[in-house]
Amino acid sequence: xxxxxxxxxxxxxxxxxxxxxxxxxxxxxxxxxxxxxxxxxxxxxxxxxxxxxxxxxxxxxxxxxxxxxxxxxxxxxxxxxxxxxxxxxxxxxxxxxxxxxxxxxxxxxxxxxxxxxxxxxxxxxxxxxxxxxxxxxxxxxxxxxxxxxxxxxxxxxxxxxxxxxxxxxxxxxxxxxxxxxxxxxxxxxxxxxxxxxxxxxxxxxxxxxxxxxxxxxxxxxxxxxxxxxxxxxxxxxxxxxxxxxxxxxxxxxxxxxxxxxxxxxxxxxxxxxxxxxxxxxxxxxxxxxxxxxxxxxxxxxxxxxxxxxxxxxxxxxxxxxxxxxxxxxxxxxxxxxxxxxxxxxxxxxxxxxxxxxxxxxxxxxxxxxxxxxxxxxxxxxxxxxxxxxxxxxxxxxxxxxxxxxxxxxxxxxxxxxxxxxxxxxxxxxxxxxxxxxxxxxx
Length: 442
Hints:
five-stranded antiparallel beta sheet, alpha/beta
């Protein structure tokens, strides 16, 4: 039997359903998975010239090194130069307010399950335009009486100056101040709803404490290593200069095993082509240590697989697939998240749930009930049409519904009572985790 939807969420839902909101930009502008809110223009000559000089001096680069240069090169990197502002691609929170509102409800549900701690940090990794946090804050405001005795603060991890400026404008109206370089946060402000917000360049700078970590379309852009099985064993896929076209790049295989091959390929691996994202693994280990020590949870939403896919490395430019080796610095480079690898990197410190398809998670969180309220409150046919179009983009299996997945990190005691063997006569079972079980309203 499917677990009953958590009672605390059934109590929250009526109040949350009364939320106001705003319509986002047309969902028709949504690009392919992984496109993100990122504009694409220019020739990328600066990054290419830099890479050609580097390749001639040092030899082939790993795919991870290539991605790092193409995306975050200080002068010409895709994210560094453009920042992701003003593009013609949108992420799920920019399609609709629904995902952010339901993520906010999820955080409150787990906060209540933990006994309503006196302080709570909401940490978003790679907040984009700030739309997701903005929707979460709207939920917190609607349920302010519930949080009246909780010290809530927002902590955003963002390396792009342009994006942090856009986030500040959306969340605070631009009323922020810069901090001195010796402080962990480089910027701070107060949200329009009165909650303090801080900006950091890395997760290591975020203060510890009971926290909810949210990463929406964050891990997919982290650099990956690629490996190919050959008759001589595993070889790493590298990037080198094409000898037939000296101003172009090509993929080559390493002549022998590399350190990455030795460290990242598991003995039991059955696939012939594997992608590994070490930075994602390090991040999961850090989150696992924090959650194990301080409590809280992490919710990751991204497109990916559970250790089944092979070659997913691709580029997007102007809403179309783009050759990953052409004009580096002008296109978004991305790869599916391997959730089985994230589970391994948790190293048993914490429990994991998922991955579960986006359409299932949102339905389990009550997206249909919220949608009904929005439609009832819409005043014209154009608004209703846009709401329905946004819902279709989020839930349609052929669009975002099956492509994106949710994955949670939780303390072990959240799923298994401590000293279970000594507490067989427990008076009440642990409440189910919202979103990861079927919604049954009674």
